[in-house]
């Protein structure tokens, strides 16, 4: 009879353990509610024996949060707000493998419950999705390792060197493709410019060169300005009146006034001027307008030649 009692107690213990493991996946409880299942807890339930883990933050790791919900399969929290589940529910440490933590009961960011789960069909689409980005996981896959932490110190060092060389190789290949693309574009552009007039081709090249610079950094050569005048004259709005400088009469009067000033200085035997006391506004205004039109150097040359011809 004693053996029978011991046998019955043993069977009851085994049955109790089996019920615990089969129902361990539903280990969630609401806040401030005494938990009835051994693998569930809330944020306010204190348990000094078990270790509980919070759900992933749905604001940062929504994809991992959905995986946790699918693995647990608890209908009570499936339709709840993700923030409520994140703040008020915990999952037992018994549902995670040793590879899912860092060794101090702290889970990795991509850890998902995988142990003691109910018999349910979990949808897994990771094999169906093929990412376009290349990572260094292929190096570890060749040596049949899934995580870098499983490598030996020497293997980790070699893995970092191989990863660095792999990234450098990808950068070189990308740079080579860019060079080929640029060279092909340049060849097509040069072939098209050969069919145009030299002035038009020069103007187009300058526009392409200045396309990437800021507006106040653009500088146009004399050929570019002539090309702009030609295009304006050939257009419907262009006319001879518009192409004429706006204050040509004033400039002519100013030139004559400058010549008269030098003649008066010649008659008075004045060979030195104090420029600080001389009113230079008309002269400065004159040359300022000339510089805006790109004609400062020719006009200065004309004035100098005119003055020197009268003085000598």
UniProtKB/TrEMBL annotation:
Signal peptide feature range: 1-26
Residue ranges occupied by any THAP-type domain in the UniProt entry: 29-116
Presence of keyword Zinc-finger: yes
Pfam families for this protein: THAP (PF05485)
Alphabetized GO MF terms: DNA binding; zinc ion binding
Domain of life: Eukaryota
Annotated keywords: DNA-binding, Metal-binding, Signal, Zinc, Zinc-finger
Family matches, as InterPro entries: THAP_Znf
Keyword match Iron: no
Protein name: THAP-type domain-containing protein
Organism listed in the record: Acanthoscelides obtectus
């Amino acid at each position: 009879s004693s053996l029978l009692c011991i046998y019955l107690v043993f069977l009851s213990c085994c049955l109790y353990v089996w019920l615990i493991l089969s129902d361990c996946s539903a280990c969630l409880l609401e806040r401030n509610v005494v938990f009835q299942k051994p693998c569930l807890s809330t944020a306010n339930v204190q348990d000094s024996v078990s270790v509980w883990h919070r759900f992933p933050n749905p604001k940062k790791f929504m994809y991992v949060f959905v995986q946790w919900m699918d693995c647990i399969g608890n209908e009570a929290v499936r339709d709840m707000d993700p923030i409520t589940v994140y703040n008020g529910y915990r999952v037992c440490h018994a549902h995670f493998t040793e590879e899912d933590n860092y060794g101090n009961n702290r889970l990795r960011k991509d850890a998902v419950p995988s142990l003691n789960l109910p018999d349910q069909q979990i949808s897994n689409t990771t094999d169906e999705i093929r990412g376009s980005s290349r990572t260094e996981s292929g190096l570890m896959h060749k040596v049949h390792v899934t995580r870098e932490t499983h490598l030996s110190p020497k293997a980790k060092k070699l893995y970092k060197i191989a990863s660095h060389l792999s990234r450098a190789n990808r950068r070189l290949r990308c740079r080579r493709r860019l060079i080929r693309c640029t060279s092909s574009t340049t060849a097509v552009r040069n072939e098209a410019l050969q069919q145009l007039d030299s002035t038009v081709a020069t103007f187009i090249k300058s526009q392409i060169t200045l396309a990437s610079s800021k507006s106040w950094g653009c500088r146009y050569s004399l050929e570019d300005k002539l090309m702009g005048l030609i295009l304006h004259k050939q257009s419907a709005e262009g006319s001879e009146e518009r192409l004429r400088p706006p204050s040509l009469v004033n400039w002519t009067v100013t030139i004559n006034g400058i010549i008269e000033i030098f003649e008066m200085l010649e008659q008075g035997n004045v060979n030195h001027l104090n420029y600080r006391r001389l009113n230079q506004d008309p002269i400065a205004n004159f040359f300022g307008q000339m510089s805006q039109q790109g004609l400062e150097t020719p006009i200065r040359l004309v004035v100098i030649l005119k003055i020197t011809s009268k003085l000598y």
